[in-house]
Amino acid sequence: MTYLRVCALSELDEDTPRRVELDGLAVAVVRTEGEVFAINDICSHANVSLSEGEVEDCRIECWLHGSSFDLRTGKPSGLPATKPVPVYPVKIEGDDVLVSVTQES
After folding, report:
1. Is 29 exposed, middle or buried, given 0-12, 13-18 or 19+ CB atoms closer than 10 A?
2. For a Cys-Cys bond, which of 28, 32, 66, 69 suits 41, CB 3.0-4.6 Å?
3. What is the pLDDT of residue 79?
4. Total structural domains in the chain?
5. Is residue 104 situated within a structural domain?
6. For residues 81 and 44, what is the distance between their CA atoms, to the nearest angstrom?
7. Can you tell me the distance from the alpha carbon of 31 to that of 103, in angstroms, rounded to the nearest whole number?
8. Quick check: 5 and 101 in contact, CB under 8 A?
9. Residue-number span of the structural domain to which 92 is assigned
10. Long-range contact list for 51-54, CB < 8 A, 24+ apart?
11. Do residues 38 and 63 touch, judged by C-beta distance below 8 A?
């Protein structure tokens, strides 16, 4: 698994998603409840950026239609979204936030 640096931990505000591009993928990075999560930034219901939504109770809400996704699993909590979005492994090394969007072979 290859990890890429996305930002400094000190640059992430609590409960404020940050959009980054990794290997052509839009990823929302979120610091909440003492952890950092990385989730695909595109809502599975519509082509909408999740990083523009709000974070609460370890979930990120799509600002357009209100579907909410678990930051740990990517599973939606209700309609209109019915499909999960991918989540990605995160490592913290010092002040660096590292995310992997590659699959192990």
Report:
1. buried
2. 28
3. 86
4. 1
5. no
6. 6
7. 23
8. no
9. 4-99
10. 51/17, 51/18, 51/19, 51/26, 52/17, 53/17, 54/15
11. no
Task: List the beta bridge partners of residue 14.
Answer: 31
105 lies in a domain?
no
The CATH number linked to 25 is 2.102.10.10
Q: What is the pLDDT of residue 78?
A: 81
Angle at 95 between CA 90 and CA 98, to 5 degrees: 25
CA-angle at 90, arms to 43 and 16, nearest 5°: 55
**pLDDT score recorded for residue 104:** 55
Query: Is 38 inside a domain boundary?
Result: yes
Q: Confirm whether 36 is domain-assigned.
A: yes
pLDDT (tens place) for every residue of the chain, 105 residues total: 899 999 999 999 999 999 999 988 999 999 999 999 999 999 999 889 999 999 999 999 999 988 999 999 999 998 899 999 999 999 999 999 999 998 654
User: Would you say the pTM of this structure is higher than 0.90?
Assistant: yes
